[in-house]
Design brief:
The complex is a heterodimer of chains A (382) and B (402).
Chain A (H helix, E strand, L loop, with lengths): L4 E2 L10 H13 L9 H21 L6 E4 L2 H15 L6 E5 L4 H12 L3 E5 L9 H7 L4 E7 L11 H11 L4 E5 L11 H4 L3 E5 L10 E5 L25 H13 L11 H14 L5 E3 L9 E6 L4 H9 L3 E2 L14 H5 L4 H5 L1 E5 L6 H18 L3
Helix pairs in contact in A: 1-8, 2-8, 9-13, 10-13
Chain B lengths: L3 E6 L9 H16 L6 E5 L2 E5 L2 H11 L5 E11 L9 H18 L5 E9 L8 H16 L6 E3 L6 E8 L2 E5 L3 E2 L10 E6 L5 H11 L2 E6 L9 H18 L2 E5 L3 H10 L5 H20 L4 E2 L12 H8 L6 E2 L7 H11 L2 H4 L6 H4 L11 H8 L4 H10 L2 E5 L1
Parallel strand pairs in B: 5-6, 5-7, 10-11, 10-13, 11-12, 13-14
Antiparallel strand pairs in B: 1-3, 1-4, 2-3, 4-8, 4-9, 7-8, 12-15
Helix pairs in contact in B: 3-4, 5-6, 5-10, 7-8, 8-9
Classes of the chains: A alpha/beta (382), B alpha/beta (402).
């Protein structure tokens, strides 16, 4: 088998060796229950404290505003259901976009079944929500707006600050949730400045293990929990904390490039992405779907007359792993997101997503490009 | 408390002098299907096969056995050993038989309220008690000993929940409460060998099952077109072959490399004929494989009119390149019937997984539904058929699945 080149980091990322070490150490040494009174319990609790503080520092929020969850899907479900269950007296209306991740989109469809009115904000060809429509959609009874920060298929970045301004101007009582799963570690988010009420992140997208994530919940906002139990995470997400995974998450945090106001874009990734883009554009059978100024780790493109799935299998034979759209939709026929952006069915059929990690080298990219060319020649049918 | 399984075969009884070959094959198949569970004694009497085993393995044995073609039904049973001619059946024996019947009923029947009925079959008419009398007296022994406030029990001769059967043969009496149906038909291998064209869809595994049921030993061929078809599609076919192996023993699956052939067809032949020509290529390869394997027919899951290629003209176009007969067990079956059977066999849930097989990758907009043989033959001339087949077989993968 040839050397592996993994380009499916938006689906999930490889857990790094040092994260595995941190995990394993925590499992061996800090196995006690953080709620236990003895000193071993306290040592375990310290792991949570450290990680909470580091996350808060990255997102410019307070440590006590972090709730650990099992990952992005749970964070999104807890945010949405938690808010609407707690504040249903405010109304029956929700707003989201047509390009949300399935953990928001499918939940919204379910909520419609349960009697909620949901508006799905349209997007333009660049995969960015039409914010001019938003103003007209917000109503007196709009309880919550949920818009993702970075789209997982295209990498398009949503204007979160503008959106939050529009929401607060039109209905100061409406809550604003942002799915930040693909944004975290890739673009800087100062949640205080962005005036976001809830923000979801997921560990396994940045080399932490699967099964750990977090939800930011702005202090003072009441949330109805999904689970009931022993009062952990301020009783908003009870259940014995996943200490080892949190130790892993903390270690992973330390390894990703730190972003800040002056450095809002992960430049390391962006450089690789631009190199990749430049090379892809030289292939005449390829059209780029991702908009300019998109997230630094995602490139979506389409092949002419070759199905995306076929190319996925062809490259897998060479040890190169990418995906058709998002991992969660790859079992459905074609991408709902690309369709919402107005791409033709043909363009949708041929769509592929590359998602980078900081470990990818320029020589890897060169190899991938040459293999893509090779496979296009093999697969294209005159 | 069971200590044997009574296995009944149906159609084999109609055979003449070679009946024993069929029974011998069925016993071999039974033996093969349960070999990993231990060594079991198998005996045959009066159109029945008896499989002797401890009660702890009876249910697992039964589960496997009722899948084997040739078997009409099977019953877990206990035997009552007389060790003398049944005509010498004494009062003391009768008392013991009643006790055994009662014990069996108590052990096997757990849910009350319920109803039952006793039915006797005296294969050996020298047994001194007539069937109606035996039915009534054993029934009464069960009823009076079990019937209570917690265990509401009654006799129902028309529609009982439990049919308690007593079978009296020479020197032995068998007691049982269940008959599990088998597929019937003939024992696998008694009709020879054939090659199944297995696609991963719903139909072909069912066609394979029918072939097994008529006593064919089958191998399978699956045409793999990487990267157009995925590893997962191949995994699916492997799992389907494993399902079929429960009915017919180990299955050899041959997987020729079909990519180049498909590419050449799409490049060189008119779009509307690609499916017809692709099927002809498959049939050619299958013929080649079958002849080398000693298989004397091909089996497909085709059903008349189901898709564009499964018309009489389409069938003629594939038969045209086959020297072996092509058996099509589903040719007149409706999709609904096929699905129903696929669910019963256990292949349906695997078949509906959404991975593409080689038949769904290059679907022309308007495939020809009534291909004209002369035209198909002419359009095919653009292909180097011999060398394409050779390459395809050179990269063939072979698996033995069970």
């Amino acid at each position: 088998m040839p050397k592996e080149i993994y380009l499916d980091n938006a689906a999930t990322s490889k857990v790094s060796a040092s994260v595995i070490e941190a995990l394993s150490k925590a499992m061996q040494n800090n196995y006690a229950n953080p709620s236990s009174l003895h000193s071993k319990g306290l040592a375990a609790e310290k792991i949570l404290k450290k990680c909470r503080a580091n996350l808060a520092e990255r997102l410019k929020i307070k440590a006590e505003e972090i709730i650990f969850t099992s990952g992005g899907t749970e964070s999104n479900n807890l945010a949405l259901r938690g808010i609407i269950n707690q504040h249903s007296q405010r109304g029956k209306h929700l707003i989201t976009s047509q390009i949300e991740h399935s953990s928001v989109y499918e939940l919204m469809l379910q909520l419609e079944d349960e009697g909620w009115e949901v508006d799905y904000l349209e997007v333009n060809k660049k995969g960015i929500v039409k914010i001019n429509d938003l103003k007209n959609l917000i109503r007196e009874d709009t309880v919550l707006v949920s818009i993702m920060h970075v789209n997982n298929e295209l990498g398009s970045i949503q204007p979160i600050k503008k959106i939050s301004e529009i929401i607060k101007q039109n209905n100061p009582l409406t809550f604003f949730h942002v799915d930040g799963v693909q944004a975290f570690g890739k673009i800087f988010a100062d949640l205080t400045e962005l005036k976001v009420d809830l923000y979801s992140i997921s560990g396994h997208k940045f080399h932490a293990p699967k099964g750990i994530g977090a939800l930011f919940l702005k202090k003072g906002i009441a949330l109805k929990p999904l689970f009931y139990g022993g009062g952990q995470e301020r009783a908003l997400r009870p259940g014995t904390e996943n200490t080892a995974a949190i130790a892993g998450l903390n270690r992973a945090l330390a390894e990703i490039t730190a972003l800040n106001k002056d450095n809002p874009f992960n430049a390391k990734l962006n450089k690789k992405k631009n190199y990749f883009l430049k090379k892809l554009k030289t292939i005449k059978e390829i059209k780029i779907n991702s908009p300019k100024n998109s997230a630094p780790h995602i490139i979506n493109f389409s092949l002419k007359n070759i199905k995306g799935e076929t190319m996925v299998h062809a490259l897998a034979e060479e040890g190169i792993y990418l995906s058709t759209s998002s991992a969660c939709t790859s079992k459905n026929k074609y991408s709902r997101v690309l369709k919402a952006c107005g791409f033709s069915e043909q363009r949708n059929q041929g769509a592929l997503r590359i998602s980078l990690s900081e470990q990818i080298k320029q020589s890897d990219i060169d190899k991938v490009i040459s293999k893509i060319k090779e496979k296009i020649d093999f697969l294209k049918i005159i | 408390m069971y200590n044997l399984i009574i296995i009944r075969y149906g159609e084999i009884n109609l055979k003449g002098d070679n009946k024993h070959d069929f029974i011998g094959q069925l016993i071999k198949n039974i033996d093969h299907a349960i070999a990993d569970l231990g060594d079991f004694e198998i005996t045959t009497v009066y159109g029945r096969i008896f499989l002797h085993a401890e009660s702890s393995v009876i249910e697992e044995l039964l589960r496997r056995i009722v899948k084997l073609p040739g078997i009409v039904s099977a019953s877990p049973a206990v035997d009552f050993k007389l060790n003398k001619a049944v005509s010498d059946f004494s009062d003391e024996d009768y008392k013991k038989l009643k006790e055994k019947a009662l014990k069996l009923f108590k052990t096997e029947v757990k849910n009350y309220p319920c109803s039952f009925k006793v039915e006797t079959n005296r294969a050996d008419k020298s047994f001194p008690i007539k069937s109606p009398k035996l039915n009534a007296e054993i029934g009464s022994a069960i009823l009076t000993n079990i019937e209570s406030e917690e265990k509401a029990l009654q006799v129902d001769v028309h529609n009982p929940d439990h049919l308690f059967e007593i079978e009296i043969t020479r020197g032995k009496i068998y007691l049982f409460l269940r008959r599990e149906s088998g597929p019937g038909g003939l024992p696998v291998k008694s009709s020879g060998q054939a090659l199944l064209m297995l696609s991963g869809g719903i139909d072909s595994p069912v066609a394979g099952w029918y072939a097994l049921k008529r006593g064919l030993k089958i191998g399978a061929v699956y045409f793999h077109s990487p990267p157009y078809t995925s590893e997962r599609a191949k995994e699916k076919v492997k799992e389907l072959a494993k399902v079929l192996s429960q009915y017919g023993g180990e299955i050899k699956v041959q997987i020729p490399y079909f990519t180049e052939i498909q590419q050449q067809i799409v490049k060189k032949c008119p779009e509307k004929y690609t499916i017809t020509i692709m099927r002809r290529m498959m049939v050619r390869i299958a013929n080649h494989l079958a002849e080398n394997n000693g298989q004397k027919a091909l089996i497909t899951g085709e059903s008349l009119g189901q898709v564009a290629s499964q018309t009489l003209e389409g069938i003629q176009a594939t038969d045209d390149v086959s020297t072996l007969p092509i058996l099509r067990p589903l040719i007149t079956a409706d999709k609904n019937e096929i699905i129903k059977l696929a669910k019963k066999i256990g292949s349906y849930e695997i078949s509906i997984r959404p991975y593409e097989d080689c038949c769904t990758v290059f679907i022309p907009e308007e495939p020809v539904t009534k291909p004209i043989l002369k035209i198909v033959r002419a359009k095919e001339e653009a292909l180097k058929i011999e060398s394409l087949i050779e390459n395809s077989l050179e990269k063939m993968e072979i698996l033995n699945l069970k």
